[in-house]
Amino acid sequence: MAGMVTCSVEHEVGKIGLIAVAEKYQGQGWGKKLVKAAEYKCYQAGAKEMLIPTQETNLPACKLYQSLGYTSAQRGHVYHWWKS
Known about the structure:
This protein is an alpha+beta fold. It has a single domain, classed as Aminopeptidase (3-Layer(aba) Sandwich), CATH 3.40.630. The chain contains two helices and three strands, in the order ββαβα. The protein has a three-stranded mixed sheet, with helices on one face. The radius of gyration is 14 Å and the shape is globular. The N and C termini lie far apart (about 35 Å).
């Protein structure tokens, strides 16, 4: 498997949840293909706009999304909690 993407639509907003490309397929356009496939599915399901949350420190992902015309809409903090 080259990669995977998850997406959903809520209140006419399509959202990509997870996206991953296997290391041996990176740099070959698979990320763009997966985003475009998710966009297509979301628009087919009634989305009027798209949202892709990511970490701003994930520079490869940010570069990918910017190359597809996405812009930063908002910034926030995410807290991760672990219980040992």
